[in-house]
Each structure stands twice: as C-alpha cells, then as structure tokens.
Amino acid sequence: MSFLDHLEELRWLLVRSTIAILIGACVAFAFSEYIFNNIIFAPKRADFITYRFFCDLANKYDLDKSFCVTELPFSIQSRTMDGQFSTDIWTSITAGLILAFPFILFQVWKFIRPALYDTERKHAVGFIVSTSILFFLGVLFGYYLIMPLSLNFLGNYKISDVVENNIDLDSYLSLIKTTVISCGLVFEMPIIIFFLAKLGLVTAGFLRKYRKYAFVIILIIAAIVTPPDVVSQMIVTIPLVILYEVSILIAGRMNKTPKIEETNG
User: Fold this and answer.
1) Contact residues for 215 (Cβ-Cβ < 8 A; gap 6+)
2) Which of 33, 222, 228, 252 makes an SS bond possible with 236, Cβ 3.0 to 4.6 Å?
3) Domain residue extents for the chain
4) What are φ and ψ of residue 76, in 5° steps?
C-alpha cells in the first residue's frame, strides 16, 4: 500500500471508531438518569459498597474507622445555565468511549495487521480480549477502590470550619473520569511492556533493576488515596504490584536478558 492508502485506512479507522463512540454515547444518554443516580453519584452515598466493606473490615480488625460515616460532608452544585445539559452530553461521550473500547482495539488491530507476520496475526483475538479485559478491570478498580478512597479523603479534608465544601459538578465528574480512565490505561501496563519488549526498548532486567523504585511510587500513591491504615493501603497496592510483576514476566518471554542485567536486579 502507498502512503496515501495508509492515510485513507487511518481515516476510516478514525471514522468507524468515532461512529462506535457516538453509538455508545447515544445508548448512555438514553439511560443517563440511571447512570447518574446509580453509578456516578453512588460513591457520594454512605451506603456505597466500598465504604461498607472498609467499615466492616475496620470493625473486625479494629482499624481506622474513617469509612464508617453516615454521609460525605460536601454537596454538589451546578453554577452555569447549561451545566447539567453539557455534563450529560460529555458524560455520555465518555461512557461511549468506554463501551466502544473493544471495537476501537479491533480497528487498530486491522490497521497494523498488514505489518505483522502470519504467526502474529493468529493472536488477534487474544490481543483484543486480553487488552479489553485489562482495561475494564482497571475501570472497575478505579471506580470501586480509587474513586471512593479519593472522595472520602478529599470530601473530609478541611483547612478550617469556616470553609464549606460545595463542589462544582464539573470538578466532581472530572475526578471520576480522570480516575476511571487513568486506571483503565494503567492496567494496560502488561500490553505496553509486551510491545516495548518486542521492539527491544525494555528488558526484564531493566524492570527488575528499577523494581524497588516502582514499588516506592506505588506505595506513595496508595498512601495518598487511602485512609491511614495498612489494610486499605495494601488493597490498592497489591493489584498494581501484580501488574508490574506480570510485566516483568512478559518482558522476560519477549527478550533474552543478559546475565549482567539479571544480577543487577
């Protein structure tokens, strides 16, 4: 294929992906009331499953009781005329992006397929399924763990009793979108390492060498978003550590690490 043919294929990839996102957005818009009441604003309620889980855990093992609350001390407000309407539209688009993610992956695979070997093309289904599963696991991880922990910490944080927490609707939704999508992308770490190792840019020895620094960063993130108790911090830390270790295994399979790099780990 010529360069212009590749551009044409890329254009149709973007067109088909956009259409898929819009279809997902229309579906989400049709169920927007349910999405807002039972998904987006659910972590704002004290009976959210994550708060109940941590509260039961704290009572059972005599840990920090910060999740045993009757309500989160902040209100959500919209201060612009079109605030709720535009929020509904953009939230539907974000939901459409999440729903269309497997289809977008399939389109990307079709675009790069001509550059792959026949043996690599056979793994198309495995690539799409594994990448989609990791993304959705990351979304669920962000929604059920990182998001409630962040809301509980930020909602209860006060510099003075004079200041009331009246949170703008855009700010609340921005936190949810950023957290959920970021976690979905973070959970793609094994897939990213797979391609970097295949290109020879990352080795298992390199990942082992800097493992301790990666663990420190993960622990710092967990300490920021969780209450000050070990159990909740470990619940956030363990999945991220597992992802990093899986990435090392993948890199090890994709390239042969020199002995000197192995000893540095």
Assistant:
1) 241, 244
2) 222
3) 3-187, 189-265
4) -110, 130
Copy the structure tokens of residue 186.
């973070």
Say yes or no to pLDDT of 265 above 50: no
Which carries the bigger pLDDT value, residue 264 or residue 119?
119
Long-range own/partner contacts, residues 174-177 (CB < 8 A, 24 or more apart): 175/147, 175/150, 175/151, 176/40, 176/43, 176/143, 176/147, 177/91, 177/94
Structure tokens at 135: 């993304």
* Stated pTM of the model: 0.80
Encoded tokens for 149: 């922990």
Looking at per-residue confidence, does 230 or 211 come out higher? 211
**Amino acid in position 73:** P
Reading the block at residue 238, the tokens are: 């363990």
The 8-class DSSP code of residue 157 comes to -
User: Residue 55 is encoded by which pair of tokens?
Assistant: 């509260």
Q: Is the dihedral of CA 182, 157, 71, 90 positive or negative?
A: negative
